[in-house]
Write a structure and sequence with these properties.
Blueprint: E1 3-11, E2 20-27, H1 35-47, H2 57-62, H3 72-88, E3 92-99, H4 106-123, H5 125-129, E4 133-137, H6 143-156, E5 162-165, H7 172-192, H8 197-204, H9 207-219
Parallel strand pairs: 1-4, 4-5
Antiparallel strand pairs: 1-2, 2-3
Helix pairs in contact: 1-3, 4-6, 7-9
Length: 225
């Protein structure tokens, strides 16, 4: 049985204060085993005396939560190590950007998200239909995302083909990959708008360094038309 896990994360929330909202999809064919690549990543962390903690971009960049007691150098090494893992994984991704100022209300934003997700699947329909099941992983963190995903996916794929999942420890690394890629795409938006600030500069460097060493690598994994 061929299965396609589909991981979804978002950046931003439905408050008026949010300037950008991003929705990132990561696709990984179940038959492409990734256990050995994750083991190499974890061994790299151990060799560098770095903690093997779940990767979360925002706390890492700002030194919060599990990263609170880690210095800047350690957090930068963790980010670089995770980037190396992402480059080695057999994945594809797609990110949609929404500028909050372009949507007068939440309903308009939700409608655009539904359309974009539907078009993404329709544009690659033969690929998606080549699997017996599409396993959807989303933690249902925001109702607007859940509703858009449900309506988009069930309108383009049969209900029998979609299996909704909550992320388990087995798949947790790929959910973290989606988080990482969403953060890179958000950084790209902020660099372009000259809103990157000191935190991004510390981790990614100037705009040239970011594009060459981070954004270019991430976009090698983009879902192609």
């Amino acid at each position: 049985m061929r299965e396609l896990p589909l991981f979804v994360v978002e950046s931003g929330d439905k408050s008026i204060a949010t300037r950008y909202y991003l929705l990132t999809f990561v696709l990984h064919e179940q038959s492409d085993r990734i256990t050995s690549k994750i083991q190499v990543y974890e061994q790299t962390l151990a060799a560098a005396d770095l903690p093997n903690i779940p990767f979360h971009s925002e706390p890492l960049l700002n030194g919060h939560d599990d990263y609170e007691n880690l210095g800047l150098t350690q957090r930068k090494k963790l980010l670089v190590s995770f980037n190396v893992l992402v480059q080695r994984l057999p994945i594809q991704h797609k990110t949609f950007l929404y500028k909050r100022s372009e949507f007068p209300n939440i309903e308009k934003l939700a409608a655009r998200m539904r359309r974009d997700a539907s078009e993404m699947i329709a544009d690659h329909l033969a690929y998606f239909q080549g699997f017996d099941h599409v396993k959807l992983y989303y933690d249902n963190g925001q109702a607007i995302v859940k509703k858009a995903l449900d309506e988009a996916i069930y309108s383009t794929l049969s209900k029998e083909a979609v299996v909704k999942k909550r992320t388990t420890m087995t798949e947790y690394r790929l959910a973290q990959v989606a988080d990482y890629l969403c953060t890179i795409e958000l950084a790209a938006v902020k660099y372009a708008a000259k809103e990157n600030g000191a935190t991004y500069d510390k981790f990614f460097g100037g705009v040239g360094s970011f594009k060459k060493n981070w954004l270019k690598q991430a976009r090698r994994k983009m879902l192609r038309s």
